[in-house]
Amino acid sequence: MYNRDSKSIGLGTWLAVAGLDRRIVELEPEECFFRQGDASDCVYCLQTGRAKISVISATGKQATISLLSSGDFFGEGALATEPGVRTTTVTALNACTAFKIKRGEMIRAMHQKQEFCEHFLSYLLARSVRTQADLVDQIFNSSEKRLARMLLLMAENRKADEAKTMIPPITQETLAEMVGTTRSRVSFFMNRFRELGLISYNGRIHVHTPQLKAALMGQWPLSGTEPMSAAA
Asked: 75 near 33, Cβ under 8 Å?
């Protein structure tokens, strides 16, 4: 399984030596690391905070396709044989700190630092698997199931024995973009999840992981309820 802890491979020590080709950047909430259409010339590794990856269509419609947390890489399109322009926008959701690594320095590190190269490739493979799962989820599952799965994926599972886990601050509009539905539908489902004991609110959303997993498998935690529908 992919290990987010970059310190375990000495990445933090390597990047701590500041230079022209690798440095630390700090962003405030709503600031962008890069925008769709910018030159693709560097890779980032998020150290603290949360960020989102979004795309904008030719007609101006925006969709959030993923959330980033500490240890995640992004902007890896810069490593393409012929780097071009960014195809997505990455925006800080809260105060963020990240390592910014120039394309040439990243390629050099992958050639010379085997452990780092294995770590980075492991990350890319894990994200590829996640992307495939997201595609299957989008095609075959209802918006209610997609929302439930998204909440589980976002939960911060730092302690395996915790029954309740908290997801990062996120608006219902962003959840709707990620699930592919409307804000009103997200609000309806969230209220239903809370009534069923699958989530709770206390300033932040707490996901009751075992109960929500059971609900996704058709095993509702309360008697007399109907399973999640298979159709959108």
From this structure: yes
